[in-house]
Amino acid sequence: MKTFSNMKAFAIAGSMALVLAVGTLAVKAQGPEHHGHGHPGAMGMMGGDDARFMDKALDLTDAQKAQVKALHEAQRATMQPIHQQLEAAHKAIEAASSNGNFNEAAIRAIISQNQEAFTQAIVAEAKMKSDFYKILTPEQQAKLKTLHQDMQQHMKERMERHHKDGANGDQAPPPPPSN
Fold it and tell me: Which of 1, 65, 91, 169 has its CA 20 to 30 A from that of 32?
């Protein structure tokens, strides 16, 4: 059962890293000097390249672009301190699980201490998605839904390939080459 606890702690740490990434994208969404590297479909929690992708994919009007920019600016003040807290937590988790060391108690304590920040980041992302959706026309909403489904399918296929290739550690190593 110890392995299950370790896997669960790593899954929680991975979730925390995802929230950190979302917070990073929210902060980066503030101008052309920032280039986000998230995924299309983050709907409003995008920066740089992702925002340009959504602009083109959804054919946003100038008025919609201005509304999206206002949403990002309004959220920036809220997300910046949360992002900083989650970044510090992420670094602490890395320290508690690096170089072959694993300190489950420390990781659980870090997660527990930062649970409210995680919650705030997730709620802020959901609100941003909702506000972004309201800006779109019905046609753009349908296109966004299709883009989101395509992204989910792509991620699912990628995970399946990852596991099929033995990256999950469940498969035996390949046989030695024969000469």
Answer: 91
Q: How far apart are CA 151 and CA 157, in angstroms?
A: 10
Spell out the residues 6+ positions from residue 110 whose beta carbon is closer than 8 angstroms to its own.
89, 92, 93, 96
φ/ψ (deg, to 5) at 31: 175, 170
CA-nearest of 18, 9, 14 to 102 is 9
CB 18 within 8 Å of CB 6: no
Cα dihedral value 64, 72, 24, 149, nearest 10 = -30
Residue type, 29: A
Structure tokens that stand for 176 in this block: 């030695």
Q: Please give the single-letter amino acid code of residue 126.
A: A
Q: Would you say residue 130 has pLDDT above 90?
A: yes
Token pair 């779109």 is found at: 136
Under 8 Å between Cβ of 45 and 25: yes
Task: State pLDDT tens for residues 35-89.
Answer: 333 333 334 445 556 667 888 889 999 999 999 999 989 888 889 999 999 999 9
Distance of CA 4 to the CA centre of its chain: 24
Distance in Å from the first CA to the final CA of the chain:
42
